[in-house]
Write a structure and sequence with these properties.
Two copies of one chain form a homodimer. Helices cover about 35% and strands about 15% of the residues of chain A. Chain A is α/β, with parallel strands linked by helices and about 325 residues long. Chain A folds into two domains: about 190 residues, inorganic pyrophosphatase (n-terminal core), CATH 3.90.1640.10; about 120 residues, Diaminopimelate Epimerase, Chain A, domain 1, CATH 3.10.310. Chain A has a six-stranded mixed β-sheet with strand order 6-7-8-9-11-10. In chain A, helix 2 runs antiparallel to helix 5. At the A-B interface, helix 6, helix 7 and helix 8 of A face helix 6, helix 7 and helix 8 of B.
C-alpha cells in the first residue's frame, strides 16, 4: 500500500489498536501516538497497546493514548515494527492479526495483511505526517509535537545521514504548526542524567586506542554502572562515542553483562565494514553499525574484537 | 534596508570586498563565502578579506574566496559583524568604509552606511540565502553547501532555540539543491579531536556540584590544556556541558588564562539570569548565556561565582 491507500484503509475502520515495537524509541511511540490522536480527531476510537518498556520521556507524551483494559479492538495496526517478533511485550496475541503495518524499514518481513513500507523515510513520523495530511486532519500544536519527537529521535535531531530534504521540510511545517522545537530539543537532546554524564567522563578517560589511533575501545563494566547508578538501557547513545574521535575508523563499545559476557557495538567509517567484523563472532547488522556478544569478560573480548577489527582496516 | 533593498544595492556594485568577524565561526565565513560565490556567478568580482583566525574546518570551504594582495575594492560589505570593533584582524582600515552590513544581531551598532539587520534570522546564512534568491542566482551544490554550513553552525545543527520553521525550510531547500548534509554533519558535529574528547572526559569527571545539584562547575586549567594538547579556541562548545546535566540550573565553566586569571562562562535555565550573575563581576551577555573575567585563580573564582549564582537561584 502507498500512503494514499493506507489513509483510505484507515478512513474505513474504527476501534483501531496500534502496536509499537519492543524496546521502544521516540519514533514508534510518538508516530503511533500521533496516529491515534489524528484518528480520534476524525471521531474514531483508537488507542495504543500499552508498551511496558516505554521510557518516561516518551510516556509523558503518549501514555494517555494507551488502551483501557476493556477496549475491544476491531482493527490492528502496527507502526515502526519490522517483524512480528518485535511487537511490544504484551502484544504477542495480535501478531497474526495485524491488518496494516506502517513502517520505514526496508527489512520489513511483510507479516501484516497490508504493508505500507517506505524505506526512504527517515522515520515513521514522516509517514504518519503524510497519512494525517492525506486524511485532512489539521495539524495542531499537540499533533505537531508528537510528530516532531518522532522525526527528531530517529534522525538525532537532523544530524544522521538519513535526514533528507523531505525530513527538514516536514519538520519546518511541524514547527510552523506549533511544535515547541526549542523546548523539545532541550528535553530530548540537551539534557542528560548526572550519573550518565559522569560515567561518560570516566569511560572517555579510560578509552583504549590502537592501530595508530584508528581503533578506539570504550568499556562499560557492571561495576561502573553500579557506581554511577546507571542501567544499560540508559546508555543507548554511548555506542557512537568512540567513533566520533578524529582519526578513529572503528569505534568499539563493550558493555559487560550481568552474567559476565560482553555485548559489543561496532561503529565504522571510511568503508570499514562493521557487519563483517561482527560476523566473525556470529553477530551482524549494517555496514557502518553492527553488534555481537562474546562469552568472555570485557578485557579478553576487547583483545578479540580489536584483532578482528585490525584485519578489516 | 530589507533583503530586497540589500540585493538591489549589491546588484549595482562591483569589486566587492566582504568582511567577516574576528574569532570567526561557520556563519560569518560561509555566509560571506556564499555571497562572494553568488556575486561571482553574476559576473562580478568579489572576495572575502582574509581572516587570519579562520579554523581549518571552515578554511577548506572558504579560503579560495580570500582576496589576492592586489585586489582594489570599490565597495565594502560586512557579514555577521555586529560592531566595527569586531571586524576581522587586518580589516581595521575598512571600519569606516562599510557600505552595507548584513547582520542578524539585534545589537548591531549601525556602524555601516546601510544596515540590513534581521534579528529573527537564526543565522546570516538565512539572510544570504534570501539575498541570493532575490538576485536570481541558482542554487548549485557548492553554494548550497556553503549556506548549509552557515545555517547549521549557528543553530548547533537545528538544536538551539533560535531554530525556526524558516530555518528548517531553508535547510530543506539547500539539501534538495545538493548540500551534502550527511557528510557535513559528520564533519562539523560528529567529529572531535582526540585530545578534546579526553580533556572533556577529565573535566566531566572532576566537575563540582553544589546547591542540591543546581549549580555545576567545570574547570579547565592551563595544565589540563597542555596535557591534552588543546588550545582554548578549540573549546568553544565546552561551555554548554555542565548545563546539560539534569537538574542543573546554573552551568559554570572556568577557563584559566595564561596570566592566571579566570575567564568564566555561565549558562542558565528555568529563569535564572546569567546576565545578572556576571554583571556582579563587570561581565554580561544574555539572560541564558553570559560571561565575565575574574582576577583570581580558578579555585577562588569558582567560590565567588558559585556564591553569586546561589543568590540568583
Amino acid at each position: 500500500m502507498n500512503i494514499k491507500e493506507a489513509a483510505g484503509f484507515l478512513a474505513g475502520k474504527d476501534n483501531i489498536l496500534i502496536l509499537t515495537h519492543s524496546r521502544p524509541d521516540g519514533d514508534t511511540l510518538c508516530s503511533a501516538g500521533a496516529l491515534a490522536y489524528g484518528l480520534n480527531k476524525l471521531g474514531k476510537r483508537s488507542f495504543l497497546l500499552k508498551n511496558p518498556e516505554a521510557a518516561e520521556r516518551y510516556l509523558k507524551y503518549t501514555g494517555k493514548f494507551f488502551a483501557p483494559g476493556d477496549f475491544e479492538p476491531e482493527c490492528i495496526v502496527s507502526v515502526d515494527v519490522a517483524r512480528e517478533t518485535m511487537i511490544t511485550l504484551g502484544g504477542e496475541m495480535y501478531a497474526d492479526r495485524v491488518e496494516l503495518a506502517i513502517d520505514h524499514h526496508a527489512s520489513n518481513s511483510r507479516y501484516a495483511e497490508n504493508s505500507c513500507v517506505e524505506p526512504g523515510a527517515a522515520s515513521c513520523g514522516e509517514m504518519v505526517y503524510d497519512i494525517v495530511c492525506e486524511l485532512g486532519i489539521p495539524l495542531d500544536p499537540e499533533l505537531a509535537a508528537l510528530l516532531y519527537i518522532a522525526v527528531t529521535t530517529d534522525t538525532g535531531c537532523f544530524v544522521y545521514t538519513n535526514t533528507s530534504a523531505r525530513t527538514l521540510e516536514i519538520a519546518s511545517r511541524l514547527v510552523a504548526a506549533g511544535a515547541p522545537n526549542g523546548r523539545l530539543n532541550k528535553e530530548l537532546f540537551r539534557t542528560k542524567k548526572r550519573g550518565i554524564v559522569l560515567l561518560e567522563g570516566e569511560i572517555i578517560s579510560n578509552m583504549k586506542f590502537s592501530h595508530n589511533g584508528e581503533i578506539a575501545v570504550a568499556t562499560i563494566t557492571q561495576k561502573l554502572m553500579a557506581d554511577f547508578g546507571v542501567v544499560e538501557a540508559e546508555l543507548e547513545d554511548i555506542a557512537s562515542l568512540p567513533g566520533q574521535i578524529e582519526g578513529v575508523k572503528v569505534g568499539i563499545t563493550i558493555k559487560e553483562q550481568p552474567d559476565g559476557r560482553s555485548k559489543i557495538s561496532v561503529r565504522t567509517v571510511d568503508g570499514v565494514n562493521a557487519n563483517e567484523i561482527c560476523a566473525k563472532f556470529d553477530g551482524g547488522g549494517h555496514p557502518c553499525a553492527a553488534g555481537c556478544t562474546l562469552n568472555f569478560p570485557p578485557e579478553t573480548a576487547a583483545d578479540m574484537i580489536v584483532e578482528a577489527s585490525g584485519e578489516s582496516l
